[in-house]
Design goal:
mainly alpha; Flavocytochrome B2, Chain A, domain 1; 2 domains; 4-stranded mixed beta sheet; 21 helices; 6 strands; heme binding; electron transport; Acyl-CoA_DS; lipid biosynthesis
Amino acid sequence: MGIPHGQAQTSKSEDHVSYLLRTTEPRPPVTWKNLATELQWVNVVALTAIPVLGIVGACHTKLRWETGLFAVFFYYVTGLGITAGYHRYWSHRSYKASTALQWFLALAGAGAAQGSIKWWSRGHRAHHRYTDTKFDPYNAAEGFWHTHIGWIVLKPRIKQGSVDISDLASNFIVEWQHKHLNVLIVLVSFVFPTIVSWLGWGDARGGLVYAGLLRQTFLHHSIFCLNSLAHWLGESPFDDKHSPRDHFITALVTLGEGYHNFHHQFPMDYQNGRRWYQYDPTKWFIWGCGQLGLASHLKVFPENEVRKGQLTMQLKRLRETQDNLVWPVDKTDLPVINWEAYQSQAAECPMILISGFIHDVSDFIEEHPGGARFITKFIGKDATAAFFGGVYEHSNAAHNLLSMKRVGVLHGGVPHILDEKNVPPSQRLRITRFNEPACRSDSFDEAEN
């Protein structure tokens, strides 16, 4: 699909989404009066009837262990049709699949009853291109209910944003599945498990109820969690610009799609759980197909770039912590005092000189771990040598605390200030933004000089 007509008229200061919002007329809001006409009744009936029939059927049908195991197995097969097929292959092209694997994934995906490859992938590409905006079909800003099931049962308030699906439109398997989807859903999702259970161990009814209806119900909500839970539960270790989150629980219920923050940053990576210990059966399936020659060109985002994303978020969180701390007054904001004035003021208020900085120690004399005597004997004097090892090599905490007691700079004391030890340890790795001058500390001044 091409760029919407009129996009070329977008002003230089207006982004694509803002332009679309300005030029697109949304549907009226849903109210109790128009609810009946705004529901997508086919989806409402399917999402209601399947679980109801499954629950009623389970109340009257004994679960045999063979059927139970097959239902779990078939859940994974049809689920992989979505996660390995619809999602990672057709939506993101994260690997190349052989013709045989494409047919398998297309049939398995039909058994998940999540729409056609073409429809699903078109919506998912829009989701990535317009994440958290009104043109995202499952916009997280609309709330958990909307992202989980609301967008399926209600007609969209605004048309999905444009995306390119020319590769899907030219794929024979995709077009064939799209054309015959309704028949395929019935055959694969319900008839197939019924026949297998009947021929395998004589439990046709159980196959329909447990491997058909109830499996389908669980799989529906499992895949729905890819749009809801994955944008609500967890952390953002790679980027927090948008709503996707990483969480192990989400991975468990979505066949490995729970590391969603990573996925939105690096969508072309065939992995979702990039570490070997992260639960991602979809990744293992694709890798296994690669070993068998059914898949190739498994894409992996460069580790160096992944670590940049992690580092960015780590620095951002450190910056937030840093901004909530109180730091010493910069030396350029302190008064310059000559030696005579320093001694005169120290006679009235306990002050000591260390490395060119004058410190008010009135509230620390009795708190000094080494005893008050070691401070009082340096009041009005230069205690630089004593502080830096002449008497005791003070800890980083002591250096940090001392810097908070600065009240002035000794005139002519610049040589002391240029000593790198006068930069408190807590400030030596202080984080600055790209467009922000570096922390005006002594070490930076020395480097500039």
